[in-house]
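Minutes, project check-in

Agenda point 3 was the complex the collaborators sent over. CS summarized: four entities, 648 residues total, and the question is how they sit relative to each other. Sequences were read into the notes so everyone works from the same version.
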Amino acid sequence: MSIRIFITGGTFDKEYNELNGSLYFKDTHLSDLLEMGRNRVSVEIRTLMMVDSLEMSDEDRDLIVHQCRNCEEDKIVITHGTDTMEITAQILGKENINKTIILTGAMIPIKFGSSDGLFNLGSALAFAQALPKGVYVAMNGRCFNWNNVRKNKLTGVFEELQ
Amino acid sequence: MSIRIFITGGTFDKEYNELNGSLYFKDTHLSDLLEMGRNRVSVEIRTLMMVDSLEMSDEDRDLIVHQCRNCEEDKIVITHGTDTMEITAQILGKENINKTIILTGAMIPIKFGSSDGLFNLGSALAFAQALPKGVYVAMNGRCFNWNNVRKNKLTGVFEELQ
Amino acid sequence: MSIRIFITGGTFDKEYNELNGSLYFKDTHLSDLLEMGRNRVSVEIRTLMMVDSLEMSDEDRDLIVHQCRNCEEDKIVITHGTDTMEITAQILGKENINKTIILTGAMIPIKFGSSDGLFNLGSALAFAQALPKGVYVAMNGRCFNWNNVRKNKLTGVFEELQ
Amino acid sequence: MSIRIFITGGTFDKEYNELNGSLYFKDTHLSDLLEMGRNRVSVEIRTLMMVDSLEMSDEDRDLIVHQCRNCEEDKIVITHGTDTMEITAQILGKENINKTIILTGAMIPIKFGSSDGLFNLGSALAFAQALPKGVYVAMNGRCFNWNNVRKNKLTGVFEELQ
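CS then shared the predicted structure for the full assembly.
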């Protein structure tokens, strides 16, 4: 069966607006990334929202939970802003959805060349295929349980709680 | 414990010689890739050889087997040319080494911009952490058992034998 | 004799801060660009400031005029933010400095992959070598006199005044 | 009036064949480069051939001369392999065509990321606009007369004859 990919925005998909010098969301680059990686894992992609994760609302997270619970696939990858990835992971984790759910993201926008997004996407798809049911965060090549992960705001690196 | 990474060459590490227009090996780009991916998995890297996998000899493969058996880590990623990756996988598979060994590679050199190498590396490191003991090929986002994989020479895509 | 390159900041040298998602200035990328272009024109590089051109003050522009007048080279390239490039060009143009002065910049930061900066730099260095004394803006492959150029804010393209 | 761009192949347009690991020509990347550079100089592009310049024949060069002489534009840029660029420049130079003709090329294929092609193209278009009638080679940010240029085979750098 396919892996479901839900897109929510985050640094992953930010672009540079050359008319005013700001960063913004236009379209997701996920298909480009999968093509670049010569991916042949069957995937179903759906964009749920396109937001900076600092602006993700309770309602947004309800939608993510709803979609994870109700999609027909039992392996799910969610691209997500890194700033509040741990919060969405906790909410999903407490829902006890009987699926393998991997949240991942990027520190550098894909469009800015040397992005970690391609590496993280390869890693997230692999963890989705290989890990048992549960909710995980895949960042920095590692995989964390939803109840034992945070982003270190000083270093930008994901780590266990203690 | 760390993951051991063995480098053997392959398209992954090919460079363009601008003086004569040929492709050649200079140094491995693996550290650059790991940095680009913001990798924080502890790894030990060792270059075993730097060859086109079409020119890999029996002796070269003996060396790879020997190193896999004798290194202290029990999770191993091997970067390898794609043309004979399945052969090295079969030789390693029949050795019954009690470790998780993942062979991976790239269709496009890392130095040529839109490489699949970063995606495959993320995927290989994830499979190495999540899969049970065995020998696997990680390409195209997928993971194959050593005894059920081949590279389709017409499409360049890895697939099961039947 | 060498060409003098003065760096003042602008989009050209903006970088992405992966800890807070903002754009900022760290170092100039001009030497990287010149190396990438295999440049062999003798150049002397000096950073005068590192500012967004919307924040360039009268005092900043006095400094640029002073440096252009007093440096020993008579061919000068200035990297500059595009938003007020025409203003600095006008101020320099009215000074009647007996040198060939070319202002150039970029719409996309060099660090964001598909930048126009490398193209513009090649063009600016060529115009500096080939054009008579005067003050010019080199953008979009074209070269404009200081008193007949503006950036079209809607399209981001440089054009003549009428 | 427009600048005429003639494409003849060379490193500029080489691509990597991921099925057999060889370098080959498919299509020209010139339009991509012009777009990347936000070029607004009016250009007319025509591909005359797509060859490695080591394999350029007398007949090929006759065609280039013929096209330069007969096109309606009087400013011409020719993209050309670097290995025999000086030979084509000499042949064109001796023809006394009353136009500004600039030959340029690249040491690294455009598709391989850090190419000098974008820099050289910006430079060639600028020299074509600014220089008097004549035949020139634009490489390494510099511009050489057709009768005083060679590629140093050891360093890959273009230089005067003495």
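Noted in discussion: Residues 151 and 158 of chain C are 4 Å apart (CA to CA).
Follow-up: revisit at the next meeting once the mutant set is ready.
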